[in-house]
Amino acid sequence: MKKGVLSRALFMLPLLALPLTASSCVDARSAINEEYRADVARIIEAVRSQGLQFEKLVELCDGIGPRLPGSPAGRLAREWAVETMRADGADRVSEEEVMVSHWVRGSEAAWLTLPWWRPLQITALGNSIGTPAEGIEADVIVAADFEEFGSFDVADVEGKIVLFNFPMRRTSRDMSGYAEAVAYRSQGPVVAARKGAVACLVRSVGTGPAGNLHTGMTAYQDGVDPIPAAALTMADAGSIDRLFRSGEQVRLRLELDVRTLPDAGDANIIGELRGSELPGEVVVIGGHFDSWDLGTGAHDDGVGCVAAMETIRILKLLGLRPRRTIRVVLFAAEEVGGLRGGNGYASQHAGEAAEHVAAIESDGGAGPMIGFSAAGTTEAGYAVLRDILQFLGPVGADELRIGGGGPDIGPLGAHGVPLLGLWASTEHYFDYHHSEEDVVENVDRDLLADQTAAMAVMAYILADLETPLPRISGNR
User: Fold this and answer.
1) Would you list the domain boundaries of the chain?
2) CATH code for residues 107-257
3) In a 3-state reduction of DSSP, which class is residue 140?
4) Which amino acids are annotated catalytic?
5) Domain 19-103+262-464, classified CATH 3.40.630.10, yes or no
6) pLDDT tens digit string along 399-446?
7) pLDDT tens digits for 280-314?
8) How many CA atoms lie within 13 A of 255 on its CB side?
């Protein structure tokens, strides 16, 4: 037993959050027992030399493929996860049912008909309604952003197809560029419909090659008639923008055979490494198990799920069983339908929320590690996290960012659970995100190992501490 240890929100990384390196802790004596240093070295080495996280990712993404909520592939993926965690020796594996939105992508096509005819690359946005069977053909009006669109009169927009051509900024240490651009995907159709548009198109929300298509959720609003919504490639959006601003009449034909079926049954997948002394107290780790259907969901969020699954296998392999239980949760339906997996877990476990000592999520791809984001603890708790991060220099994960966590664990934060998110560079993540480029070929094996090791180390130490992280809510 270790002795003498410490005394004691869409959850994108905040734009003004303060990054703190482990070296910024000026006290020469770590609050974390030095005995952990040897355990951490063993975990990192085992993940690098014996880890099966990449092999699991291949099985999931190549063997099963994209995993839209409610789809047959989603069911196969759940079966695979249950069988795999049982084979890995998890102490308990179960499924906790949740009902999910069941949106189905059918056929999708678009053509420019004026000033000349040519096909366009297009993909429907999740949750979009379809067009009439005969399609929609209308003139196009282009806005660079919501401010420009606000200058258009209803007469300028009514009966037209609106294109929002807002380019996304590439960032590496936060998701601020994505936060700016995704507003057009999520809100654009409602904004356009209020002025009488018959359909809404957006420039793909991504930073990759100009020919990439990126899908993602859109939302409708009560009292505003829904209109079909789709994304164009950056190249096609830019071309249409230039034609429109040159004074040409731009006309487009759109056909989307997409639909929303009745809610379907799905499940959060649970696997546990039971604690040696306080098994009723839990550290949750995981990511979302569903994915968009253009690629195979490798970065988003296959890597987070396999890192969590491997955490249990590696710790069992090394004979490292912490005081508290480590619970892997592979969350259902993060991409489509309003975080029903995360909300479902928080609701089903509300009675034991006080026994959840921390929750860790990975949902930012497998770029080079930077550290962890954290929320919901005190300054003393952040000091403890910085002390843990001093051990993670070998995998590049030694910085702490105050604020964040992850979307699926966010509902647990409302119960006072401290939240942590793996913080990796996003420089290239949005080249792949929600696109057909989100495949295993674009995941670096070594970087995935670094992420897996970082999650395993953080989960192990938080689950083993003599006293858990303090909670701001004061319910511990």
Assistant:
1) 19-103+262-464, 107-257
2) 3.50.30.30
3) strand
4) 334
5) yes
6) 999 998 999 999 999 999 999 999 999 999 999 999 999 999 999 999
7) 999 999 999 999 999 999 999 999 999 999 999 99
8) 11
